[in-house]
Amino acid sequence: MALTLSPIQFKDSKLLYIAFDDTRQEGSSALYSNEDVPDYEEKHFTLSVDRNLEYSESDGTLSCMGTLRFKMDIRLPGDEDSPIVASAEGAMGAVATCPLGLSDRASTEATLAANTLSYIWAKLRTIVEQLSSQSNIGTLSLPAIDPMQLVGK
To answer: What is the pTM of this model?
Structure first.
């Protein structure tokens, strides 16, 4: 079976900033030995996501320059006022392209933007997992998003 490539191709990405902070948790390694670390299996989070999209056209190709910014606060189970034990935030930009004329302009832009945002989110998820993997709170993963909903913002 021959592999068919998508007409959407990712050209570049750049991590703009990233931060992970688990120093506010009671189970910080500075405060507890490994035997005394509280169980952080149950975690609750709040997440905010913002995006920016710009398009350009050149030589029959449509480009989408996208930026995603996120902030995630992690809390222990309890009410909404339970203390934040860790936070992660960051931003990344990327460029994706596709040929013009695949569909009408609005549909092409929406599909290209959704793919660009999905690409960025997947890369940010991997980075957050790597940063948090050695923390006492354990590996954190960004949740799945609906890229079409983000495009419509």
So the answer is: 0.83
